[in-house]
Amino acid sequence: MISIEDALFKVKRNVNPLLKEDVKAIEKANGYHLSKDVISPINMPPFRQSAMDGYALNLHDDLNYRLIDEVKAGDGHQPNLKPGEAVRIFTGAPVPDSANAIMMQEKVITNNDTITIDHQINLEQNIRPLGEQVKQGDIALKRGTKLTPAGIGYLTSLGITKVSVYKKPTLAIVTTGNELIEPGQELQYGQIYESNSKMLQSVLYSLKFYDVSIYKVADDYPKTVDLLKSVINKNDLVLITGGISVGDYDYVGKALNELQVEEIFYKVNQKPGKPLFFGKKANTSIFALPGNPAAALTCFYVYVYIALQNMMDRTDTELPRIQATSLSKFVKRGDRPQFLKAIYNNGNVELLEGQNSSMLQTFALSNALVFVPAEISEVNIGDALETIVLPV
Questions:
Q1: Is 288 exposed, middle or buried (0-12, 13-18, 19+ CB in 10 A)?
Q2: Which numeric CATH code is attached to 4-19+168-311?
Q3: pTM of the predicted model, to two decimals?
Q4: What pLDDT digit, counting tens, does each position of 176-232 carry?
Q5: 24 within 8 A of 36, measured Cβ to Cβ
Q6: In CATH, what number does 21-40+143-166 get?
Q7: What is the band of 250 on the pLDDT scale with cuts at 50, 70, 90?
Q8: 3-state DSSP call for residue 327?
Q9: Which of 330, 334, 303, 316 has its CA nearest to residue 385?
Q10: N or C terminus of the chain with fewer C-beta within 10 Å?
Q11: Is 132 exposed, middle or buried (0-12, 13-18, 19+ CB in 10 A)?
């Protein structure tokens, strides 16, 4: 059994970036990381652009200007303004080359074809210059940037329709156990509804990993070996829930050994999630998570999350850990470090009732995990607690 610190170190050291590239349509690239710098094909804006509704002026020493034309957004014509002349202009419209300032309409008095401004203004005021956001040939977004809806909007505004991104890992979830049945079936005595696969699939989807396959296998050794062999060969990361302990019908460990999966570690000095296995075969990473749902999800956030970020060549691999003030008392049983389900809000954290590793009800209410080290046996109100903020 190894420490949490050693387990984290081994995950970080043994999971390498995939560095496989893919080309995505821009509208389907949300959540991906760019594998190449994106070079802007145009200036943005591609012309001198009005920042507001008002009047484009060719400045002179007087406050009165002769109104000669109008320019709307999308217009392609170029009125030629002499000093002392103006055109009505609207937000986003191209500014004539002969105009050198824009006065907002609220500060203009109109009288037929004459306008009067209420004060002198500066050259280029209220004009967005050519290439203000990015110039043609410059880097619009750097390699490694995670694409967000704003980033997709920005690149689309440059006329970009496809981007090169790092391919996301292919993922498999394998659940084991004779007692597990699908929701919708009639529950017989001794059976429970299988929930781990949907839970893990949901958290993967929330992190924008969508290439996820789900498999189920009964407590049967030959079938376990055959299924694990197949999914390990086909996927970059395999998550197995249940069957990793030492019971008579826990076949996962034996199957992984037969398949010559390299054991990086097995069992971590923590609660929940002690019977956690991490191993590799070729370029595939394998996590055998505990069968208890809360333990499985805790191990996902603490360890699997890091593996996924490493695969995507990210440097910010761990979830944020902050110091929060406890609003609760808690007495820790045993001498293992513990992860506690909690609600974090504005610098404070409340420890929840129902910390059993089989209970998801408490986890369903939480947005954080509090880490209580081995040497701390009791938490009091006002204590500073290391808090892992979970992704929403």
A1: buried
A2: 3.40.980.10
A3: 0.82
A4: 988 887 888 888 899 888 899 999 999 999 998 999 999 999 889 999 999 999 999
A5: no
A6: 3.90.105.10
A7: confident
A8: coil
A9: 330
A10: C
A11: middle
